[in-house]
Amino acid sequence: MLASVRSAVLVGVDAHPVSVEVHVSSGGLPAYNLVGLPDAAVRESRERVRAAVLSSGLEWPSRRITVNLAPSGLRKSGPGLDLPAALGVLLAHEVLPGCVLDGIGVIGELGLDGSIRPVRGTLALVDALRHSGTTSVLIPMGNAAEASLVEGIRVLPCRSLAEARACLKGEEPWPAVPSAPPVMAADSPEPDRPTVDLGDVRGLISARRALEVAAAGGHHLLLVGPPGAGKTLLAQCLPSILPPLTSDEAVEVTKIHSAAGQAVGGALLRSRPFRAPHHTASAAALVGGGKRPKAGEVTLAHRGALFLDELGEFAPPVLDALRQPLEERVVRISRAHAALTFPADFLLVACTNPCPCGLGPPACNCHPALRARYRRRLSGPLVDRFDLRVAVGSALPEAPLGPSSAEVAARVAEAVARQTVRYRDASWRRNARVPARALLSQIWLSDEIEQTLRSAARRRQWSGRGLAGVRRVARTLADLDDVDEVTSAHVLIAAGMREDVLA
Questions:
Q1: Residue 312 exposed, middle or buried by CB count within 10 Å (0-12, 13-18, 19+)
Q2: Which domains does the chain have, with CATH numbers?
Q3: How does pLDDT run across 357-372, given as a tens digit for each residue?
Q4: Quick check: 136 and 105 in contact, CB under 8 A?
Q5: For residue 33, what are the β-bridge partners?
């Protein structure tokens, strides 16, 4: 007998539909053969499936069983095909009626006792099944709340293989889908991390303004200053002023974190991700990769912020690996068996000391060779990708407190709303994402202001990217001031925020 069960597998952070075809033949010696490019976790499913069927009080066919995972050219990974294979065997062995899984997708890992265990990437897997025409999905109880976030598909949760068989035959009703927990933040693995309020930062007026501009327009920000100046504290305030995710962005971010194995608890992530890897991170950890490519920190920071503290301590090859993702907003990884593309549209905020001793001129006591070596760790092309480069002086204890995060977040939200309206017919939504081909038409400047900008570019020897970056920052400053036209004051302030802080 032949049976086919719909399922899906993860490839990177994306999901692809898979058909689990099971053939039970009376000819030949009893065996269980699995074909269709399975990885080690899928190949090991043969033992889990057999033990789960027997532990559930069901008969295991003493025949030749062949399981094919189609399409055969797609490499299959993960334990989520255990349950489809087990139900396929029961269908082919006529333990289940042949039509009970019509229109139903199946995802789940099996325990040896027949229990159905949760799998990662449920949101992406269920969404892929929905787009393939599936109307219902049989899912582990632990993934049911997350699966219910996908609209237009019925969720059938189960705790065990025996329960799934009984429900499919109509002997028992399907269990109720547990309600989704409250909305969670994208940094949910660290729920107890304290929130830093921008109102707690004294002084640092220019750096605070640059942080607000970065949040409003999506511009990359580099803060340079001595130890204890408040660079890290300022950067940690960024999540408190970033606008919330839109509905589409929330689904996109939740899919990525679920596929990466981050615990999301069945709720959509509504706050933007904020990732802060240590400076010892490898290139694969930062941008993704490995023998079997996985998403890196830049992908987990998609639609949010990536904070690199002590930028000068990162290995130069690791930092240079950021250059292409910063430009293209995706990570392309090619291996012998796969070529994957990971999303990487993030806001980069970095902090560094001006030299090894950290004091910078004129108090620096480092040898010139040490300063030059430290400066070379940050390549020119990488630094050029920061639209905002600000020197941070030490904050004085008597300096006044500034506006709170709530006040700044309100201004940022208004500026973002202006950009959303302005670019409603475009493929981008933020000033920092305006492509070069549309720069002159989307960010118009009068002839006089255009001349001011180009004079500043010649005087400071900006690259073409630098000139475009100042233009975009000036537009964001105008949005924060709630005006339609960019003025010369906006251009001059934007130019001042692009200091040569590492000279």
A1: buried
A2: 2-168 (3.30.230.10), 198-428 (3.40.50.300)
A3: 877 777 788 888 888 8
A4: yes
A5: 66
